[in-house]
Specification:
With about 270 residues, the protein is α/β, with parallel strands linked by helices. It has helices at about 1-30, 35-45, 70-80, 95-100, 115-120, 150, 165-175, 190-195, 210-215, 240-255, 260-265, and strands spanning about 45-50, 55, 60, 65, 85-90, 110, 125, 130, 135-140, 160, 180, 200-205, 220, 230, 235.
């Protein structure tokens, strides 16, 4: 009898363990994973894609260091998560593909990224943290020459843009007579305009003031009357709503406590909130 009882007890324990293991596996399978934020916190580092060619929002120096308004925003977001930040190079022509890549190249992208319906259809975008709009850079001696889009859209006018972004898209959609010149490196275009390699650069109200302030050969005659109006935000893959919430919370906090306004002032940018 004792042997039978002992065997029964052992069998009962084994069955109990099996049931517990099965329950544990079931709960694990049905529970959502820790989410994107948990993965970033476990890694201890926020990976941020940025083009590094867009003063004063995102610029990469020859020694590999990054600076700019967007770079500081990325650091603020990382600090709010208690992690470090690492910047990963991307480009305007490959931006969407890089954001959507599997495995992921980075957690989110930041810089002069305009919030558009097309991007929101396939990716997530944060709320806006910087107002923008299309405008031009030209030589200071030509400032009186270009007072409208019609003045720019003339056969003798050479318009330079960087490839793959909304500047090229705007030029192709709105300029039918001007000659559009595509130059690979966005950061080189202002000096090429100043040197006479082209007449006009299609750019943003976020970028134009920096070059006017740092190169007296340049002017932005339509800075206060941009062709378009929009917002710049943070771009990331879909199904990262937890990370999106962290980013939006930080943007809202910075608007409320005045730090976003101070950051705008630091870089000479228009504050519209």
């Amino acid at each position: 009898m004792k042997k039978i009882t002992w065997a029964f007890a052992v069998l009962l324990v084994m069955c109990s363990c099996t049931v517990l293991a099965a329950c544990s596996e079931s709960v694990y399978a049905e529970s959502p994973d820790g989410g994107k934020v948990a993965a970033i916190e476990e890694r201890g580092k926020l990976l941020v894609g940025t083009t590094g060619d867009y003063r004063p929002l995102s610029f990469r120096e020859p020694d590999g260091t990054y600076w700019g308004f967007g770079i500081e925003m990325a650091r603020e977001i990382a600090n709010s998560m208690g992690v470090d930040v690492e910047f990963v190079n991307t480009s305007w022509p490959t931006l969407s593909a890089d954001v959507l890549a599997e495995p992921q190249l980075f957690d989110m992208a930041i810089g002069g990224i305009t919030i558009t319906d097309a991007r929101k259809a396939t990716m997530l975008m944060s709320e806006g943290y910087l107002a923008n709009g299309k405008t031009i850079l030209c030589r200071a001696t030509d400032a009186a020459r270009f007072t409208s889009l019609a003045d720019i859209d003339q056969p003798e006018v050479r318009v330079m843009v960087n490839p793959g972004g909304l500047n090229e898209k705007f030029a192709n959609e709105n300029l039918k007579q001007a000659t559009i010149v595509v130059h690979q490196k966005n950061e080189e275009i202002p000096s090429l305009i100043a040197q006479g390699e082209a007449d006009v650069m299609i750019t943003e109200i976020t970028e134009a003031p920096y070059y006017v302030q740092t190169d007296n050969r340049l002017a932005a005659p339509l800075l206060n009357t941009p062709f378009t109006h929009g917002q710049i935000g943070v771009l990331m893959q879909k199904e990262q709503e937890d990370l999106l919430q962290v980013v939006n919370n930080k943007i809202q906090q910075m608007k409320a406590d005045g730090s976003l306004r101070r950051l705008h002032q630091k870089y000479g940018l228009v504050y519209a909130y």
